[in-house]
Specification:
By secondary structure, the protein is mainly alpha-helical. Helices cover 70% and strands 0% of the residues. The protein has 8 helices and no strands. Helix 2 packs antiparallel against helix 3 and helix 3 packs antiparallel against helix 7. The protein is elongated and about 85 Å long. It starts with a helix and ends in a 7-residue tail after the last helix.
Length: 228
């Protein structure tokens, strides 16, 4: 009957195997992105690789606890997964609750802190210059015309224009749809996987409290020892 010892064990093993596959997928994506120069920002690649390694480590702990029916391993597995659920659910909910203005503020802060090479890549691919068209401010001190990496882009944008005041469009409005999609995607995936973590905690707790029907004490194997 499903819900018994064997069913709980197999379900927990299958769920942790899925987590291991996702962890290796994250590592593969990070390595491929770095090797193919899709993402040249090392902290981003390092973050992806770290998430993959941490997920694999947690999954291996869950697998070992499930296979051995180890009470201590399953206990720490439940604690770590529940803490991860709280953090992931909070971040995912925040991503879904962020409005367009807040998205622009976060994106602008990120734009000002990323390396110049990464900003240059975005500007080259989208033929834009700077992040927004607003005037100087403490948060965004550079306008498109003052952006230090915009010289080549300006010549590309204004190659066919006779306007002496021609400037490339800012990157902020062009990135708005992608930023909004990224926030919603991260929030949706985070909510989905956070509930799989709740399921894993429930299965681990149920499996931990169940008696192994195949376990027999040493005295039960050799009952004649009681005669001595």
């Amino acid at each position: 009957m499903c819900g018994g010892f064997t069913c709980s064990k197999n379900a927990l093993i299958a769920l942790n195997i899925l987590y291991v596959m996702i962890g290796f997928l994250l590592i593969g994506v990070g390595v491929y992105a770095r090797a193919a120069s899709i993402v040249t920002n090392l902290p981003i690649v390092g973050g992806i690789l770290a998430c993959g390694v941490i997920l694999i480590c947690i999954s291996m702990l869950g697998l070992a606890g499930a296979v051995k029916h180890h009470q201590v391993m399953l206990f720490f597995y439940m604690i770590i997964l529940f803490m991860l659920f709280l953090i992931q659910f909070s971040i995912a909910s925040s991503c879904l609750a962020v409005n367009s203005e807040q998205q622009q503020q976060f994106a602008e802060q990120g734009w000002m802190t990323v390396p110049t090479e990464l900003r240059q890549q975005v500007q080259d691919s989208m033929l834009c210059c700077g992040f927004n068209a607003t005037g100087p401010s403490p948060k965004s001190p550079l306008t498109p015309a003052e952006e230090p990496t915009c010289d080549i882009i300006q010549r590309k944008c204004c190659a066919t224009s006779s306007d002496p005041n021609c400037h490339c469009p800012p990157c902020g409005p062009l990135l708005q749809d992608k930023i909004d999609y990224a926030f919603k995607l991260c929030g949706g995936l985070g909510i989905f996987f956070s509930f799989t973590e709740v399921l894993a905690v429930f299965l681990a707790r149920r499996y931990r409290n169940q008696h192994d029907p195949f376990y027999l004490p040493a005295r039960a194997v050799f009952p004649h020892d009681y005669l001595y």
